[in-house]
């Protein structure tokens, strides 16, 4: 799934966005589920990321985890 454009709308005086059904399906979530908005940098660009977990693992952490699993076999 590529980037999706969303418009910030007014919801009782607060800013709100609608999340397209395709994005919800890709994340495996539905209305009533909890998502976290995480600030991340892609290169020098500041981005907001939707995640099912409160933080996104650092890629280095993923590599170390992978190496540890390989060493256990």
TrEMBL record:
This is SpoVT-AbrB domain-containing protein. Gene3D superfamilies: 2.10.260.10. GO terms for molecular function: DNA binding. It comes from the Bacteria. Residues 11-55 form the SpoVT-AbrB domain.
């Amino acid at each position: 799934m590529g980037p999706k454009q969303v418009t910030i709308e007014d919801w009782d005086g607060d800013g709100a966005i609608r999340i397209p059904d395709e994005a919800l399906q890709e994340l495996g979530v539905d209305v009533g589920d909890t998502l976290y908005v995480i600030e991340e940098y892609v290169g020098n660009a500041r981005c907001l990321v939707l995640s099912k977990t409160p933080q996104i693992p650092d890629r280095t952490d993923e590599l170390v985890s992978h190496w540890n699993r390989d060493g256990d076999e």
